[in-house]
Every structure is written in C-alpha cells, then in structure tokens.
Amino acid sequence: MKRAITIALNEVKLYLIDRGDLAFSLLLPVLTFALMYGAFGGQTLFKGTATIVNEDNGAYSQQLIQSLESIDGVTVDVVSAQEANTKLDRSDLLFVTFIPAGFSDTLSTGGKAQLTFKQRGNGGQDGQIIASMIRGITEQIDQSFEAASAVKSNLAGRGLDDNQIIATVQTLISQQRQDPAYGIKEETTGGSTDFVNQFLPGIITMYVLFSLSLIARTIVEERKRGTLERLLTTRLSTGELFFGKFLSIVARGFVQTLILLVLSYAVFRLFTPLSFVYALVVSIIFSASAAGLGLIIASISRTEEAANWTAIVITMFMAMLGGTFFTLEPGSVLAKIGTFSLNTYANDALKTVITEAGSLADAWQPLAVLAAVAAVGLVISRLIFKAVPGSK
Questions:
Q1: What is the distance between the alpha carbons of residues 283 and 263, in angstroms, rounded to a whole number?
Q2: What is the pLDDT of residues 320-350, one digit of tens each?
C-alpha cells in the first residue's frame, strides 16, 4: 500500500508540473463555469432598451415613457429624430418608437393619436417585445380615457368639474392596477426552472470522462517506452503499480470536480454544507469508476491513437446516453442502452444530493454500481496487463 501511495503522489506531482495537461484539466472547468454563470447566473427576466423619439413632450407622452421605465429590465433611451434615423440607416438600431408632436393635445381633446414604429426588418426580438409593451401601455391609457368619458357622461348636469372627474378616475384605475382583483400562479412542467441544478451534474461527469483519453494515452506511452516494465523489475508488484496509477487518476478527476463544486457553492449557493460533502463523496466514487475504465482502455490499447480514440468514443457514448444533456424517457430503448453509461448513475446520484436534497443513503444504488465498476476495472486491467508479453 505504501508503494502504491508513493506512485500516486509521484504521478500527481508530474501532473502538476505539466503545464499543458494542468491547463486542460483545470482551466477548462473554470471556463465552463464562467459560461454557465453568464448563461444562468443573472435574472431570467427580459432586459432591453426602448429607444424613443419624443417630439411631443406633453403629459401623456411622459406618462408613456414613465410607464416603460417602470417595467423591470427595460431601459428607456430618448434620442432625437435625426440620431434615430441615422442609427436605423446604419443598423445600429433595429427598432425606434416615434411620439409625434401634438400627441398629448390630441388625446386631451378626445381625438385619436398615433405612434409610429420604425424598424429594420422585423425589428429584432427585443424590438418586438418592446413594441408589445408599448401597445399594452397605450391600451391602458385608452381604457382610462374611455372610463373617464363614461363617468363624465353619467355625471353630466351635476356641476362637477371635468378635470376633477378625469383625475379621480385615473387615480382609481392606478390603484386597481397596483392591487388587481386577480392573481397569476405559475406552474412549470417538463423540467426544472433551475438550469444550474439541472446541468451541473452533467458538466461534472462529462469533464471527468474527458480525462479518460489523457489517462489511457499516458499509460500506453509509458508501456511503449518500457517505463512500466522497468518499474516492475523493482520490488514493486503489478497490483501495487496499478493501484498507484488508480489512485493518481482518482485524484486528478477529483480535483476537476472540486473546482466546479467550490465555484458553484460560492456563487450560486446551490449546496448546504452537508450536501456539498455528499457531492464530494459522489465525485470521488465516480472518479474511481472512471479510473477503472481508463485503466482497462489503457491495457487493451496498443498505440496512443487507439487509446485516445477508444476513450473519446466511450466518453461521447456515455455523455449522450447518460442524461448529461437531456433526460431520457424511462423505459425507452435509449434509456435501456443508457444503463451501460457511468454518467447515468453518477448523474442520478448527484441530482439526488444536489437537486433533491437527499443523502448518500438515498443514492446508494447508483453509488454501488459505480463502486463495483471501479473495483472490477482495477482487477480486469491488471489481468490484461499481466497477459501482455514482457509484463510481470
């Protein structure tokens, strides 16, 4: 055991010295986390800019702009007509709303005022959303005018000031909008709304499997150079050699997952301290199963290219059919094939302890499968290696 640990420590030391290997193993998970944070770390609400040309500057044009500014995620940019037209011509802007002169006066006298939407093409997705918001606001203003007109008609002849009636009606309408008589309840079906929780287990397992190609290729290179055989001429046994390699591979895989878990814990607050420890344990067991598989690939491969491509094919198979990118329908043909993927069991275990707030006892079945793969892989790879001519 002591010799195996010495080999593992030496392998980890060499791994830390190799800048290229270290960069691939450590920087890629960090970059992936940065992309994940950029995609899912912010608010899911719409964020856009409403470009307005206000040639009116009256009360109702200001009400329209203030209503837009009150919407979460919407920023209003008031520009001149010349600037707007120039930017539209250069495609710097795709959608601009023009409030014509006399807009407020027309509304005040009961006339029909008209806004103008200028756009390039379809105005872009943001432009279409802004246009929809503006239509909604103008409909609310129109409804307030209709309500005020109806109230004035009903109170005609009672000596009430029209401006007082309009102000009272608008105040009541504003209060009603702030505290409506109805509510909206959102229910999501077909998946979780927390995308980080949904994709983090798959990203973790995918990166551990990506290291298979490096693991297998390195061991094949050492065998071709005779490094492994020279080690076996010492007091080191085949079992100690392979167990030392096994421990070093587990350490490398664990470092990758540790980076992602720590960053996720610090930024997204996905874990409790206990669930974080559970996730670390799952990661160690999955790294061990991946190490067992990597040793088998290295033992059966005769060239670096064969080891590399075998590892890539197996990695892609396990990633695609292991629930990494999408959920497979239970009982389907793909789901049955996916039972041969390590990712299936690792993702199940990680989702249990991260998303479902379960314990290791709740995830014992997938963890047992992963542990069995690790043990069997270590034994089989050793037997195959011993059968190679020139090995001890």
A1: 15
A2: 777 766 677 777 787 788 888 888 888 888 8
Strands, E, within 55-191: which ranges?
Answer: 74-78, 95-99, 116-119
User: Quick one: tokens of 25?
Assistant: 């193993």
List Cβ neighbours of 56 (8 Å cut-off, separation of 6 or more): 99, 100, 101, 102, 103, 104
* DSSP bridge partners of 50: 76
Q: Which residues contact 89 (CB under 8 A, 6 or more apart)?
A: none
Residue 267 has a pLDDT of: 72
Please tell me whether residues 15 and 53 are part of one structural domain: no
Domain that holds residue 208: 2-41+194-387
Domain assignment present for residue 183? The answer is: no
Token pair, residue 137, equals 């606001």
| 0.90 surpassed by pTM | no
Domains of the chain: total: 2
Among all chains, which residue has been given the structure tokens 């504003």?
Answer: 174
Q: Can you tell me whether residue 382 is helix, strand or coil?
A: helix
- Domain end marker among 113, 144, 178: 178
Q: Does residue 221 share a domain with residue 329? A: yes
Judged by average pLDDT, the poorest of 37-46, 92-101, 105-114, 181-190 is: 181-190
In this structure, how many other beta carbons lie within 10 angstroms of the beta carbon of residue 179? 6
Contact 377, 296 (CB under 8 A): yes
DSSP result, 164-232: HHHHHHHHHHHHHHHS-S--------SS-S-HHHHHHHHHHHHHHHHHHHHHHHHHHHHHHHTHHHHHH
Which residues are within 8 A (CB) of 230 and not within 5 positions of it... i.e. 6 or more apart? Answer: none
